[in-house]
Amino acid sequence: MEDPRLRAARYRVERLQKEETPDATGENVEEAPTTTPAARAAYVEVAIQQAIRRGDFDDLPGAGKPLPDLGRAHDPDWWIRRKIEREQLTGLGPPALTLRVEDAELSERLDALSREEDVREALEDFNQRVKLARMQLLGGPPVVTALRDVDVEVAEWAARRLARMPDPDEAPPARPWWRRSKR
User: Fold this and answer.
1) What does 49-109 look like in DSSP terms, one character per residue?
2) Same domain assignment for residues 100 and 159
3) Is position 86 within any domain?
């Protein structure tokens, strides 16, 4: 059996839908009943059901996927964490942590450089930032990143570069057919 009050609320909502009022643009807009909370709830329920029938909720982003962070404890900075993940921002955080990450990736970054002067400049810049981070008293974790010896790192960079160079005794790789010239 249906509650008579709910039936009456639905009747009011249906009646109000028939008596649409035009807005400033000339389009018809339905007004929500403001008499009782039950009437408002019925109006909202009817509006949601109509939107479902029209297909307004079809193909929404994330449809069929679980809600992220549903079981986690409340994090007051959830919005900034999501922004950092979505935008893939790096270099944010206390200097101690960012320098540790950079220290771990420094050899790979140096291998991408082609001149010894560039390698020396990158190492001196890294050492300078480590020294500045040690002098600042901003709080956070302590800076435990070690300074890099520029001459040792340049020698290791040169050795890695030499190891990557192709052996001159080996035959060069065959050129692809589309690059072969017709002679």
Assistant:
1) HHHHHHTTTTT-TTTTSPPTTSSSPP-TTHHHHHHHHHHT--S-S-HHHHHHHHHHHHHHH
2) yes
3) no
